Amino acid sequence: MSQQLMEMVESRYQKASLPEFRVGDTVDVHQKIVEGTKTRTQIYNGVVIARKGRGINATFTVRRIVNNEGVERIFPCHSHLIGKIEVKRRGKVRRAKLYFLRDRVGKARKLREVRGGKSVANVRKKAAQAVAAQETPQPDSEPVGV
Fold this sequence. Notes:
The protein is an alpha+beta fold and about 150 residues long. About 20% of the residues lie in helices and about 35% in strands. The strands form two sheets. The protein has a five-stranded antiparallel sheet, with no helix packed on it. A two-stranded antiparallel sheet has the order 6-7. A hairpin with a 6-residue loop joins strand 2 and strand 3. It starts with a helix and ends in an 11-residue tail after the last helix. The relative contact order is 0.17. The model has no long low-confidence stretch (mean pLDDT about 85).
């Protein structure tokens, strides 16, 4: 009962839809920065190395290299300061946490890219196309019963 109550209260503060991204993906996070009375959008791009939590407590960690120094930031998924999350590349990984990338240098830091294959986005796209194809009526070459 208390778990259902917590989920009901938290659901008010969750974003309606989050983009589909996973660990290993290279993303651009558009974050709103408030400076005095002005607000601006700052883009933070890097590789998602971890996701954890669920519901309103869900977070993801993004790692990037700045001046040959690794920088990691943890973003709350449902923060109102995050404008949008754009997936630039899909990484092919076999781990839930990519902390081993901290020790890698140079080209060894790169992840393989998912191309075409059976990525989640492609499967959903093909399923939507199949449904759309079924809904459109096919013209018959000859009327039936003539």
